[in-house]
Design goal:
With 138 residues, this protein is mostly helical. The protein has one domain: Hemerythrin-like (Four Helix Bundle (Hemerythrin (Met), subunit A)), CATH 1.20.120. It has five helices and no strands. The longest helix is centred in the middle third of the chain and has 29 residues. The termini are far apart. The structure holds fe (ii) ion.
């Protein structure tokens, strides 16, 4: 089985709860890869995509609540990046539904999510490490 993206310590943002959620998110991306590779039924694609959407919102919520708690000065910009991703995921899901869960569409989503996640963890999430640590959040 091809693993689309593997967790490495380089992806760590220094906060255990967030790292665990990012690992789960990577697991969902890899689950989508499996759906395509095994040509699983449309109902399964639908289920995994819904979970991906719900988990994305849940995870962004976790980060944003912590931002409020520590009065993070980049809260607005960061939350804006989250909203943009959520709307792209929504659009992909509509597209997947319209294409009757065509695997090519799901593959496009997988590629997009991997690019987005690696960039976001490295360039956006890592910026909050210091403020979280200053507030004793590890
Ligand atoms: Fe984030």
């Amino acid at each position: 089985m091809r693993t689309a993206l593997e967790w490495t310590d380089e992806l760590s943002v220094g906060v255990e709860l967030i790292d665990e959620q990012h690992k789960y998110f990577i697991g969902l991306i890899n689950r989508l890869v499996e759906v395509v590779e095994k040509k699983e039924p449309r109902s399964v694609s639908d289920m995994v995509l819904q979970e991906l959407r719900n988990y994305t919102k849940f995870h962004f919520d976790t980060e944003e609540k912590l931002f409020e708690q520590v009065k993070y000065d980049k809260l607005k910009e960061h939350a804006y990046e989250h909203r943009k991703l959520a709307s792209v995921v929504d659009a992909f899901i509509v597209r997947a539904q319209r294409s009757n869960y065509n695997y090519a569409t799901i593959n496009l989503l997988i590629a997009f999510l991997i690019d987005w996640l690696v960039f976001h963890l490295d360039k956006v999430d890592k910026q909050y490490i210091d403020i979280f640590h200053q507030h004793g959040i590890f």
